[in-house]
Amino acid sequence: MAFEATSAQTAFRAKDQRFRQGQVALAIVLPILLVPISDAAIAQSASIPTSTPIDRGLDNSPDDIDNQLRESDEREDSIFAVEPLQPIYGQWQRSTRALRDSIGLDLGLNYTGLYQKSDAALPGKRSEGSGGDLDFFGRWNLFNQRGPWPGALVFATETRHRYSDIPPSQLGEEIGSLWSTVVSFNTQDFALKQLYWEQGRYEDGLIYRAGKMDPSDIYDSGRFVSSNYAFLSPAFSDTMTMPLPAPGLGLAGAVYPTENTYILAGVHDANGAATSFGQLDRGEFFVAVEFGATANYDEPGAGLYHVTLWHSDAREDANVPSGRGVAMTFEQEVGPDGTLVPFVRYSYADGGVTSVHQTFAVGLGLEEPFGQNADLIGIGFSWGQPSDTALKDQYVLEAFYRVFVTPLTHVTPDIQVIFDP
Questions:
Q1: How far apart are CA 113 and CA 365, in angstroms?
Q2: Using an 8 Å Cβ cutoff, are 282 and 309 in contact?
Q3: Which residue of 8, 41, 164, 166 has the lowest C-beta tally within 10 Å?
Q4: Sign, CA torsion 184/185/190/195
């Protein structure tokens, strides 16, 4: 595994309900914090062959545990070649290499710090929020690691904390936005977020997971659908119309009708909770089916296109109605080296199960800018229609630049402009 640290991300948002209908409220995210407070992904060296399988359909999200372990096997270009964390990394590398070679246990550790500030807020409300997120995760390959139907126990723990009066997750409410300024980055005690058994591989024609898992890592995902690695705004890094449960007990699997297509389906406890095993006994479920295609998989010119259908039961105790909807994501590498990636996303829901009725987003990602193999530039524009017809539609424009400062640390200045919040 490789020891990788990711970014201190910064965001500005603005909102003032004193703006009249038709006027524009601006929210600007400036690169105020450019120190490596952030995401430290610790894993084994790239010289060690990875034992993590490719799970087409199940691993579309950058936040998927298998993806995080695979990513940390890569050596990253950076502005400075000297790594201050190298002494710590060296010890971690020796320890994790021994575990991986002896018992097949692959481990990773991430820390991400985030600071956001808005240029305006509602009267009496705060205009900045900051916090951190510590993740410890791993994959224990226990069955037939190099043969058909490999099986592994996969886990993830997490704790979240705030640096300031409010965490970033609350900033959207403070500025009156229809949606949050970022996905996650709230406060949460240490929790066993995921613990599931995974078996099978693409070559076997079936992969399934059973146990406690995070549905947001599975459905309607894409390479830029992550606040840790790409866009901050849930307009791009989440499916706001889809009431994806918090991590809880469930079953999900993918089959492959043809070489470049998959069908993904799952059923999950609608009352999942990161800090517990949910309330499966209530019999309230979230179910989804996704039909996808992966053109030129893992090659230049690769594309991902999928349509997700979902249904969520009413949650009696939470006073949330039932709902159903559809989500679509299309992304395609273009250019001779495939580093330019335009994308389109759309989602719709009925039943008023979330505060957003439908969304549409378009954007563009530029991978490996200036020859740096792990840097990323992104820009996107999104529209959202609220479920409450008394509220106005909202729009957001976001741009960011994720840059590796050292081989283990990346920083992401980010700017968001919110129209008609």
A1: 22
A2: no
A3: 164
A4: positive
Element housing 68 (H / E): helix 65-71
DSSP reduced 3-state for 212: strand
How many CA atoms within 13 Å lie on the side-chain side of 217?
Answer: 24
| Among the listed residues 144, 156, 226, the one whose alpha carbon sits nearest the alpha carbon of residue 196 | 156
Vertex 403: Cα angle to 40 and 371 (nearest 5): 125
Average pLDDT taken over every residue of the chain: 84
Give the CA radius of gyration of the chain: 21
Residue 249 DSSP SS3: strand
Partnered with residue 118 across adjacent β-strands are: none
For residues 145 and 104, the answer to whether their CB atoms sit within 8 Å is yes
Q: What pLDDT does 360 receive?
A: 98
pLDDT for position 55: 57
Q: Looking at this protein, which amino acid is placed at residue 129?
A: G
Whole-angstrom CA distances from 200 to 55, 59, 108, 215 are 9, 13, 22, 19
- Which residue stretches of the chain have pLDDT < 50? 1-53
Q: Hey, is 56 helix, strand or coil? A: coil
C-beta separation of 387 from 352 below 8 A: yes
Burial 235-273 (b: 16+ CB within 10 A, else e): bbbbbbbbbbbbbbbbebbbbbeeeebbebbbebbbbbb
Number of other residues whose CB lies within 10 A of the CB of residue 300: 12
Q: What pLDDT score was predicted for residue 1?
A: 33
Alpha-carbon dihedral angle through residues 300, 216, 168, 193, given to the nearest 10 degrees: -120
| Whether 321 contacts 351, CB under 8 Å | yes
Q: What is the pLDDT of residue 407?
A: 86
Token reading at 116: 């956001």
Instruction: Decide if 56 contacts 202 (C-beta within 8 A).
Output: yes
Which residues pair with residue 379 across a beta bridge? 364, 399
| Residue in 282, 273, 284, 252 with CA at minimum distance from that of residue 353 | 284
Are 254 and 55 in contact by the 8 Å Cβ rule? The answer is yes
Longest CA span, the chain = 65
Tokens matching residue 244: 């994806």
* CA distances, 7 to each of 57, 69, 229, 263, 372 (Å): 27, 17, 8, 34, 16
